[in-house]
Design a protein that fits this description.
The protein contains six helices and three strands. A hairpin with a 4-residue loop joins strand 1 and strand 2. The longest helix is centred in the middle third of the chain and has 32 residues. It is globular and about 45 Å long.
Amino acid sequence: MESLEHLFCTCNLSREIFGNPPFSFPQSHITWKDWLLERAVTLTPAMFDKLLVLLWSIWRNRNEVLWRDKGKSPHQIIIAAMAWYEEYLQANVAHQTSSAVNRQSGRKFWKPPFGTALKLNVDGGFLPTTNQGGLGGVVRDSQGHFIAGFAHSRMEHVSSSLHAE
């Protein structure tokens, strides 16, 4: 069974992606979780966002190899990850612009928490033919900035989207 430590730190693909600063994984005995926490503190928010997109891209590539026998080179993974990151930034700017217009029109949208509180939004889904589902969530601050997220797939014995949530 493959571990997260192997996937993100010791496999050849990850070593090539994270082989240079600012994402370099040290050769010491630090765990990948401690490395990630250190990166969260030492990198700028934009660089840490890029790191998270790269980690997600490595995970996604692993699944493509595992389930479809199709994988990308480290170079292709980096290019795709940065393209998704730029697309996200552009969509976020467009969303902020349209949100101001939609507030005036009375449409309902995500509302931020007050003060220093955080807000967790979750969504679940299921496949009625297999009784399997999944769940994902996003934590944001009062400015709408991404704080954390999670996803859990392959939940067994799920009878509805609400049940998955």
